[in-house]
Amino acid sequence: MRQAKVYFENQLAGLLTENENGFIFLYHSDYLKNKDSEPISLTMPLQKEAYQDKVLFPFFDGLIPEGWLLEIAEQSWKINHRDRMSLLLACCKDCIGAVRQPLPVRNQNYH
Predict the structure, then answer these.
(1) 27, 59, 62, 105: which has the fewest C-beta neighbours closer than 10 Å?
(2) pLDDT in the model for residue 24
(3) Are 90 and 77 in contact (CB under 8 A)?
């Protein structure tokens, strides 16, 4: 299982998890309590329930580079182009826009 913290501007917005069943995105409870919080994507409105899918959510997949830049990432980090979570973690630490820094979670409690 791999996890990444997802930030909206400078606030922790949620947690993206990859497990044997696919992908889960869950908004952080503190983020949901903030009346000024915005969804990370129009396709992922604010909600308490987790989003689940067998493939990486299109919003996150769209952050991964394409073309020659993807080839450079694959060669530099030796990542298979089908390993979308690894590509997201390696290539999208400093994304353009409000959503940024999908960072790996290392044995921390999350709620």
Answers:
(1) 62
(2) 97
(3) yes
**Could you tell me the residue ranges of all domains in the chain?**
2-104
Question: pTM of this prediction?
Answer: 0.79
- Mind listing the pLDDT tens digit for each residue in 38-53? 999 999 999 999 999 9
Please name which of 21, 65, 29 lies closest in space to residue 47, comparing C-alpha atoms.
Answer: 29
- The phi and psi torsions of 86 (rounded to 5 degrees) equal -65, -40
Supply the pLDDT for residue 82.
Answer: 81
Burial class (CB in 10 A: 0-12, 13-18, 19+), 96: exposed
Do the beta carbons of residue 25 and residue 14 sit within 8 Å?
yes
Instruction: Assign 75 to helix, strand or coil.
Output: helix
Backbone angles phi, psi at 88, to 5 degrees: -60, -45
Based on DSSP, count helices (H) and strands (E) in the chain, helices before strands.
Answer: 4, 5
> Distance from first CA to last CA of the chain, Å, rounded?
17
